[in-house]
């Protein structure tokens, strides 16, 4: 009897270890699935709120990081490319530093669309472009350049917010940085004006599709 009891006591810690392992495995799976759902592989309507980095005498400065991913990066035959996140929030009456990491190639702007090669609506009317190696995006290519206009054949996408007069042409395979000043709270539609979509015109999906080449910038008070 005593021997049997001891065996049972010995077996119980083993069951606890097994149970703990199963809980850990389930938790890991949940994290993976959650990451997939909100990351590049899942739906792309993720939102991001700009991170305030300082607030000096009522002037808030915030940072907003966006990534342009290719359909290939999203995997499983997903249509692309897409801005991630596509819906984002920035503080009102603030200076916001926006950094866009563009993994995609250029799709030249031609004809009437060439006007979107010009930077408008940013602080100083400029942006800074730093080439990156897309397979090692922390590796820079060439020197950073500050410019108010990008050659139309180097443009991959644009971040265009018509109601705010903002247009920033995104150089392919680059990290693009610019500052915007925000005003009153509101929800502003943005879209890409570069024909990066499907079809002969490049104006097919995902052009104009929320979650890909269109979305909202919410200016929150
Ligand atoms: Cu685009």
SSE blueprint and pairings:
Blueprint: H1 2-38, E1 47-49, E2 51-56, E3 59-69, H2 71-74, E4 82-84, E5 87-91, E6 94-102, E7 127-133, E8 136-147, E9 155-161, E10 166-171, E11 174-181, E12 186-191, E13 214-220
The chain binds copper (II) ion.
Large-scale geometry: globular
CATH architecture of the largest domain: Sandwich
Oligomer: single chain
Rounded to the nearest angstrom, the distance between the terminal CA atoms is 73 Å
> What is the number of E strands?
13
| CATH fold node name of the largest domain | Immunoglobulin-like
Spans of 5+ residues with little confidence (pLDDT < 50)? 29-45
Name the structural class.
Answer: alpha+beta
- Number of structurally distinct domains: 2
Q: How large is the share of residues in beta strands?
A: 35-45%
Calculate the mean pLDDT score and round it.
83
Largest sheet: 7 strands, mixed
